[in-house]
């Protein structure tokens, strides 16, 4: 039997190692292909070798974004069983790429949010190229490490840390815009707290309007269309504000009645959202009316009505992420491309289609190869998610970004999504806390009663054993008492064990919370230190 077990373990180990080898092979092939394409397509241009190596780093970075950051968009849907792992990967890959190519920014501020002052380079291109290469590689390495540790972290913060560290290494601490860095540090608190509060509010609303009702089906017919329409409003508003900036002038040309603006205003986006929300409300109301005839009047029945909206939410979140974070993440590569091609340094640089392609394809590949690890972490290893909880997290992701953008607050989509998961988990603990305390009190009273009974059995046993002249009935009673004492002791032991377990039950896994928060806090400084070290290494090699 032991030999068969060892052979089975060896077979599983070989199977796992072969899969890991295949993943690594695909990843290396993609990076080498990007390197070769970049080098051959820029032949004869000074510093084209730097550009080719930077493209390699960009491909590596894009895959790490796919492996880590994209998990936040589809993780809740997978954890709630609304999507399978394969379905989530396909949807995320398609919509991430579509978001990047269709609505990705054609111009990106290469120095993200004014983190460093590029005039400090004095027009010297080489140190600038080295700094951007260091930032790109450092951010990618940090994301890779975080993925290995199963910690979802912010891509934007990784890039911020990389640019800051390389900037300091190149020109000193004065190059950093510390006011901007303070705002980014504030987002470590703002993002998860906002996401958590909004997700908890929506989950409580769903429970109050449907789950706690006696007639859940009638309540669902009334309220599910309202919640889904609200989600539609939030996502259309969010996508209009954040995802359509690139193509907005073209939309204005087609729809002449729109205000002639370079980018959509909140009012216009909100009106778009209301129109779509109205249409969605009518469709969902009819659909829910049909489905309600086939579901049970319980929580599972209510959950099933949120499955399709969750799939749409995962797709829309992926599209919005592709439209925004892809361009930001490959900003340093765009900056290097611009510096190599023009021989100068500019605060803004156009993103060539091949650079955008590296970002979009790299993210899709990284997600397919290494994404499942973080998707499982986000979807099931922080707290248990069902469809209504995952729906609340998706709502929090879209509404928090809308609120933050209008208030000018820097937020992270990663922190919002994970904060939303924390929020629904802690709400569960709060709502079920009183019931848990009552159950624990009942169990403690039961243990006290069992101990009293055990004491009585032992007292009777001692009395009978001390009796000098025992009858047959006394001996039989003593034997019976020993049996009853053993059974009572075993019962008390099991009750204590169960009580101890009940006291430890937590709906949010504290170890996961601590690990993720620690990773968030050290992301910027870790990427900065790594970037500075890489900058000095590149400088040392070149000079």
Description:
The chain has 543 residues and is mainly α. The protein has a domain at 435-502. It is built from 18 helices and two strands. The protein has helices at residues 2-41, 48-68, 71-79, 85-103, 125-148, 155-171, 178-211, 216-243, 248-254, 266-291, 299-304, 307-329, 331-342, 353-380, 387-407, 413-466, 472-504, 510-542, and strands at residues 107-109, 348-350. Strands 1-2 form a two-stranded antiparallel sheet. Helix 8 runs parallel beside helix 12. The longest helix has 54 residues, at 413-466.
**Radius of gyration of CA atoms, rounded to a whole number:** 30 Å
Characterize the biggest β-sheet. Answer: 2 strands, antiparallel
| Helical percentage | over 70%
| Unreliable sequence segments | none
Tally of helical runs:
18
Structural class: mainly alpha
Topology of helices and strands:
Blueprint: H1 2-41, H2 48-68, H3 71-79, H4 85-103, E1 107-109, H5 125-148, H6 155-171, H7 178-211, H8 216-243, H9 248-254, H10 266-291, H11 299-304, H12 307-329, H13 331-342, E2 348-350, H14 353-380, H15 387-407, H16 413-466, H17 472-504, H18 510-542
Antiparallel strand pairs: 1-2
What keywords describe this structure?
543 residues; mainly alpha; two-stranded antiparallel ribbon; 18 helices; 2 strands; 1% strand; globular
């Amino acid at each position: 039997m032991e030999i068969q077990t060892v052979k089975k373990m060896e077979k599983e180990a070989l199977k796992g190692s072969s899969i890991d080898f295949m993943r690594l092979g695909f990843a290396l092939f993609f990076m080498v292909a990007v390197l070769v394409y970049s080098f051959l397509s820029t032949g004869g241009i000074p510093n084209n070798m730097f550009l080719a190596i930077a493209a390699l780093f960009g491909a590596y970075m894009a895959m790490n974004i796919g492996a880590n950051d994209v998990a936040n968009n589809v993780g809740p849907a997978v954890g709630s069983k609304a999507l399978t792992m394969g379905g989530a990967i396909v949807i995320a890959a398609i919509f991430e790429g579509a978001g990047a190519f269709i609505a990705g920014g054609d111009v990106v501020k290469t120095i993200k949010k004014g983190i460093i002052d590029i005039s400090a380079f004095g027009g010297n291109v080489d140190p600038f190229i080295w700094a951007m290469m260091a930032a790109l590689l450092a951010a990618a390495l940090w994301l890779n490490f975080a993925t290995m540790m199963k910690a979802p972290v912010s891509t934007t913060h990784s890039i911020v840390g990389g640019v800051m560290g390389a900037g300091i290494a190149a020109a000193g601490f004065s190059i950093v815009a510390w006011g901007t860095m303070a705002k980014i540090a504030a987002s470590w608190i703002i993002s998860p707290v906002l996401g958590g509060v909004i997700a908890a509010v929506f989950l409580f609303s769903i429970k109050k309007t449907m789950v706690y009702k006696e007639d859940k089906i009638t309540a669902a017919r009334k309220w599910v269309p309202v919640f889904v329409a609200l989600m539609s409003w939030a996502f259309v508003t969010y996508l209009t504000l954040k995802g359509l900036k690139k193509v907005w002038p073209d939309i204005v040309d087609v729809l002449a009645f729109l205000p002639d603006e370079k980018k959509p205003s909140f009012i216009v986006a909100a009106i778009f959202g209301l129109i779509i929300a109205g249409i969605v409300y009518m469709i969902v109301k009819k659909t829910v009316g049909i489905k309600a005839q086939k579901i049970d009047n319980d929580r599972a029945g209510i959950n099933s009505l949120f499955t399709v909206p969750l799939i749409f939410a995962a797709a829309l979140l992926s599209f919005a992420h592709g439209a925004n974070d892809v361009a930001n993440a490959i900003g340093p590569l765009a900056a290097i491309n611009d510096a190599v091609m023009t021989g100068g340094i500019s605060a803004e640089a156009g993103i060539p289609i091949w650079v955008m392609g590296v970002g979009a394809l790299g993210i899709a590949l990284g997600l397919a190869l290494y994404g499942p690890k973080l998707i499982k972490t986000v979807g099931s290893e922080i707290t248990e998610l069902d469809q209504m909880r995952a729906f609340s997290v998706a709502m929090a992701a879209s509404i928090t970004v809308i609120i933050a953008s209008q208030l000018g607050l820097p937020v992270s989509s990663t922190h919002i999504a994970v904060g939303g998961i924390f929020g629904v988990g802690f709400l569960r603990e709060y709502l079920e806390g009183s019931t848990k305390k009552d159950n624990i009190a009942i169990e403690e009273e039961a243990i006290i009663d069992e101990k009293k009974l055990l004491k009585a059995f032992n007292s009777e046993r001692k009395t009978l054993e001390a009796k000098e002249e025992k009858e047959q009935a006394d001996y039989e009673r003593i034997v019976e008492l020993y049996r009853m004492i053993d059974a009572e002791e075993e019962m008390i032991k099991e009750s204590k064990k169960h009580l101890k377990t009940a006291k430890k039950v937590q709906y949010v896994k504290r170890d996961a919370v601590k690990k993720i928060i620690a990773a968030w806090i050290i992301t910027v400084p870790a990427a900065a230190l790594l970037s500075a070290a890489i900058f000095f290494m590149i400088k040392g090699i070149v000079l």
